[in-house]
Design a protein that fits this description.
With 344 residues, this protein is of the alpha/beta class. It has 2 domains: 213 residues, Spore Coat Polysaccharide Biosynthesis Protein SpsA, Chain A; 64 residues. It has 11 helices and 8 strands. Strands 7-5-6-4-1-2-3-8 form an 8-stranded mixed beta sheet, sandwiched between helices.
């Protein structure tokens, strides 16, 4: 066992979504260390029949193959793996891609914060080491920076970066309390699960890592990022604000948000109305009218900045997994889309 993992480590399971990774998946499985007790390979209706390939060529007794009858996307595959791992008694669940980009030897670094009880969820971050960033394709670098900014706003995890990084680990109790039927199952999965974790007030930690870029082809389309992602981020942001500042709790930040928004809206609308009227009438706008528009805008902006400062400081800091009941967990692991069957 790796020396970085405590000798009395929790039961660790690995989930590997399998879709068009037949040429690399056996090497990934072979690289997973003995600290892992179970490996769940989820064949997401793969056209290469990767599930059958693993069953026929892999002799590792830890491996369980789960097959989807209908393709559900990477999110659906991971959620299926989560459900199987929870039913199998896992306490920590690690997700690793089957394309060889993620180094399984880093697994102890991902599970240690969860085992030691100071994080509920960990994820990779390829932006810690500047020398590694230089090797990242420029398109991915720029796109990831933009996605990271949108993710910070929509999820409320202001201290994390590289949101699309799929190398993750989660406490099984936290995973069992996620709303499986509501989480996005396609390309938005990694970001959406962060939003769902925030609604649980789970602690998320970044783990520095390097990434390997080979000849694999990404299935993510630019059109998805440019049009679909911003809309989903906006929806998650609105829900997060409602959940955290109106439904679950009301603080001074709630009033700063409401009053600041009202003042800013009034000031902009009032000023725009009189500016258009002044242009149409070719008459200078009175100083009093200008002040009546400018003051609400300035005060509103100040209140909204105060709210933003509170939101940044309000990132979850106390791990929630230890307080989540075990008995209720299995009720949350139902998968509502697609059929699956496991062969052991």
């Amino acid at each position: 066992m790796n020396s970085s993992v405590p000798s009395k480590a929790a039961s660790i399971a690995v989930v590997i979504p399998s879709y068009k990774v037949r040429d690399r998946i056996l090497g990934v499985i072979e690289s997973i260390g003995p600290e892992v007790s179970d490996i769940y390979v989820v064949d997401d209706c793969c056209p290469q029949a990767s599930g059958n390939f693993v069953s026929e060529h892999c002799r590792d007794p830890r491996v369980h193959v789960v097959r989807h009858v209908v393709n559900q996307g990477v999110g659906g595959a991971v959620l299926t793996g989560y459900g199987e791992a929870i039913k199998g008694g896992a306490e920590v669940i690690v997700k690793i891609d089957g394309d060889g980009q993620m180094d399984p030897s880093l697994l102890p670094q991902f599970v240690l914060p969860i085992i030691e009880g100071w994080a509920d969820y960990t994820k990779g971050n390829r932006f810690y080491d500047l020398t590694h960033i230089a090797r990242m394709p420029i398109v991915r670098l720029v796109g990831n920076a933009g996605l990271s900014f949108m993710t910070k706003i929509s999820t409320g995890y202001w201290s994390i970066f590289d949101p699309t990084n799929g190398y993750t680990a989660i406490n099984a109790r936290a995973a069992a309390h996620l709303p499986f039927d509501k989480i996005s199952r396609r390309y938005f999965f990694e970001t959406d699960i962060l939003f769902r974790l925030n609604t649980l007030r789970a602690v998320v930690a970044d783990v520095p890592m390097d990434a390997v870029y080979g000849d694999e082809v990404s299935n993510l389309k630019i059109s998805k990022v440019l049009f679909e992602f911003p809309l989903k981020h906006a929806a998650n942001f609105a829900k997060r604000i409602f959940y955290n500042y109106f439904l679950r709790d009301m603080t001074a930040a709630t009033f700063e948000l409401v009053i600041g928004t009202c003042l800013l809206t009034f000031g902009l609308a009032f000023g725009l109305k009189h500016w258009i009227k002044a242009i149409a009438d070719s008459v200078p706008t009175p100083l009093g009218t200008i002040m009546l528009s400018a003051l609400p805008v300035l005060i509103g902006l100040q209140l909204l900045l105060s709210f933003l400062n509170f939101d940044v400081a309000n990132v979850p800091s106390r791990p929630i997994s230890r307080f989540l009941p075990v008995d209720a967990s299995h009720a949350r692991t139902r998968l509502t889309a697609g059929e699956s069957r496991a062969s052991h």
